[in-house]
Structure formats: structure tokens, C-alpha cells
User: Fold this.
Amino acid sequence: MRPIWKGSLTFGLVHLPVELHSAVRSGERVSFRQLHKRDHSPIKYQRVCEADGDVVPWDDIVKGYEYAKGKFVVLDDDDFKAAALVSSKTFEILDFVRAEEIDARYFEAPYFLLPGKGGEKAYALLREAMRRSGMVGIGKITMRSNSHHLAAVKVVEDALVLEVMRFESELVDVGSLSFPEATAVRPQELQMAEQLIENLAEPFTPSKYKDEYKENLERIIKAKLKGKKIKLDEPEEPESTPVVDLMARLQESLAKGKRRPAPRAPAKTARKKRRTA
Assistant:
């Protein structure tokens, strides 16, 4: 796999050669083209002028910022060059912060950081120091022209992961929304809800969660390619819980909750007990 970015990661006076590789797969979803219903010909999109309805060639298109309804400031290539930041091959960790202090909404896209040649020891040193301290490194990175990002470096198992972050201005102010007060919850309801959560607790196993919509689409496509038609079960609408019925629903959920099997005794101990008997 070719790296997305090559450069160095610095913290203090330490320079660590690194490569950036995508940590997620893209293009996995089922994609579709728009077709003419009559003859199934693909539909083309054209750039049409709103004023006269004519198709506009690329050479006659400029970029404009709409500062008021129907009023624009036009920017040319020189304006974008003036705003551009110098492309850098260095990601400098500016600060180390505690992981639990960062709102999860800041994180956007993860990338694996791999050590470059000769950087293995420094990589392992930084990783283990961050693991033991529980810290996350914060800095800025320019991966492509005009692509300037806030980013964090964190430890995930044996890897250092660089995660592109959103800037503060991109987050919705939580103060602009209203949420229920904790005083609206009765102690017995809270205790029962905690018990229900504990009953449903399991280790996180990502493989058990499937994209059922994608699987259904793929089954339908495969059947149509063979000239067949399949019927899938219609999804059941989840039943809403009236607020007045909340306590009863909690009790009902606990009654139907998972009953964990009692732990079995080790085989050697069981055989030993049988001999004694």
C-alpha cells in the first residue's frame, strides 16, 4: 500500500521519519448511476447558467463567495495562492493533552503512522511513553496543497494513529440546545436502568455488527443478474415507549434480560471431586 504522506513527526528535539497510511476502507458501499427510465442510458450532468440557460464551458467558470443573497465576491487563482499555507513535510506535536479531555466530535478521519527507515526505536519510545502517560499529541499537518488540518496522534494497540480533527469553529455549541435535567430521573429508575445496562454488557466485537442494508442490496442485485426476484422480510418498526410507561418497560426488559450461565469448574477440579466422592 502506497503511503498518503511521507515526512517526519517531531516532539521536542526528536525527529521521527514516518509514513501515513489510511486506517479505513473507502468505496465499500454499493454505488449507483442515474439512468433514463425509458432506455437505461446513463444521465450526464451539465453546468448551466441560471440567467440564460446555456451550458457553460470550464474555461468560463470562476469561483465566487456569496456574501448576500445573489451577491458574490469572485476569487481567482492568485487569491487562493495568497491564502495557501506552505506545504510542510513535518508534523510537530505542539501539545500533549489527556485523551479523556477531548470531545469525540473533534475526531474525523484516522490514519496509521508507520515508522520510516531508522525510526523504529524512536517510534516505539514515543508509543510506549504515550501509552503509559495516557496522553494524546496535538499538532497541525498539511497533507496536500491547501489541505491544512488539526490532528491528533494517539496509541491504538501497537500502532500510532494520526487522526484528522475538526477545528473548534466546526462544532455546534452544545449550549445552543436544551437537554433534560438529571433531576427528572427518579433514583429507582436510575438503579433499574444501570442494572439493565449491566445485564446487556458485552466485550466490543465489531464483527458481530453487519451492514444489513448493504447485504440486502447485494442479494437483490445478484438475483436480478440471474433474472430472478427475491422477497426479503420487511423490517419491523421499533415500538415507541410512552414516558408514563417507562418504569414498567424497565422491569419488563430486566425480566427478559440475558441470564449469564454460571461459570463451569475446571476439568481437573471436577475429576478430583469425583474421585473424593
